[in-house]
Amino acid sequence: MPHPVELHSLTKTYGERTVVDRVSFHVGQGEIVGFLGPNGAGKTTTLRMIAGYLAPTSGQVSVAGHDVVRSPSASASAVGYAPERPALYDSFDVLGYLRFVARAKRVHRADMASQLDRVVAACRLEAVAQSDVYKLSKGYRQRLGLAQALLGQPEVLLLDEPTSGLDPGQISETREVIRSFGSDHSVLLSTHILPEVTLLCDRIAILHHGRLLAIDSPSGLGTAVGRANRVELQVAPGGPPDLKDRLLDVSGVVRVDIDDRQAPYSVNCAVESSGNVEAAIARAISRDWELLSLRRHDPSLEDVFLHYVESAA
Amino acid sequence: MSGVLAVYGKEIKLYFRSPIAYFVLAVFLLGTGYFFSYNLFVSGLATMRETFQNMGLLAVILLPAVSMRLFATEYSAGTYELLATLPLAPWEVVIGKYLGALTMLGLMALGTMLDLVPLYLFGAPETTTIISGYLGFLLLGSTCLAIGQLCSSLTQNQIVAALVTVSILLGFWFVGHLQSFQTVQFLRELFLYISFAWHFGEFIEGLARFESLALFVLFSVGALTLNVCALEWRR
Asked: With contact defined as beta carbons under 8 Å apart, do B61 and B68 qualify?
């Protein structure tokens, strides 16, 4: 059975410039995948190719088993796409706009009212349902953009920077809305906000300069860049001079950096990701040195992201 | 077909929620009404012939204001991204928008029918000539709109779309005059044959000829086909 979204060597070039370079991955049933990358990484172009707005230069993309290039109507019926800048008609009212999108998505006349009620409720638009679109705040415009994507009950939702430009309250509300989509739809979400993917996504795809650098669960990505795991110690001065050697003897410690320019000494140990190395470190040095503090740092998504981006550079 | 109707419904809504539709209708009806009254009361001509002539020129100048926004504003407002990713084929978008613009043309023609009341009350106009004139007007108008819609699909700026459309339409309107400067027979015939004014003039005279009808239909279908190609090319 095909995955809801499948990309094989997807490439987009404009003249000499390659914007998306041989990107391959899939989005599973009911999965929320975060598309992470700096501005200009190719996230929007990739989403636009999946949505059928742009044709790939080479490679294939299929949605719900339909090739986007060969069967554009069938694949478009399976996709709900919310562009970064919500595509709204300002002179419509909210329900009039949603009704137009529903008609274009061939929602049956008998199902129209229930579908509109469903998306208005899902995106919490009840308070503005009768308002003109041009009067809506940015948060409501963003949510109306999400609501139109939900019409027609598409199998796949493509959300391009859905919280871009919103205030913290609106961001939190919009995230709640997106989280609720995960049960009924497969979601591919692009963002450059790191906490967003951690909070919302089952898997994260890291894109940089048009290339897919990694795709895995947040914990899987952390494990993959295990060298970024570290233990930080504060040690009082006055012990024997072989502190570094003693720490390197501990199984699981890969590298040790000591800043002994001022008291207490700051010690940074790069450790392997697996195993409880903190207890072994504490045992190894507590007899001869006064250990003031010990703290483990697992790699944050920021560490993971920077690791991949710097490796690629 | 439901996709065409969805786009058509949206277009009609957009026309009448913007001042453009009212402005174009008002200017066109005031213009034709003025010329009709002038011909009837000052020149004493109780026919539609001169009025049709003026309607044709007004349509060539005003219809680009109807067609200019069809795609250009969708591009500039970002709403084309929605249209292009809905399960709508490019031809459904093109035809839906075209039908919306044709409705505006129909309303313009309908408005001028008020002129027929005094004509039939105080004169004895030839009904077949009037029908032929209206047929010519609708064919001319639909060709202007198809060309205007094509121009609109090629730019994000609706003013540019309108200016390019007016230039093209005036070119086809007046191209017949160039035949007097030509000595080559083929070119003389060509300039006359592609002249919108000449073919429209035939309809006004009551000559609804097949070749005139075919020319307008050919231009319209050609422009709409290129319009579909332009949308495909944008991808």
From this structure: no
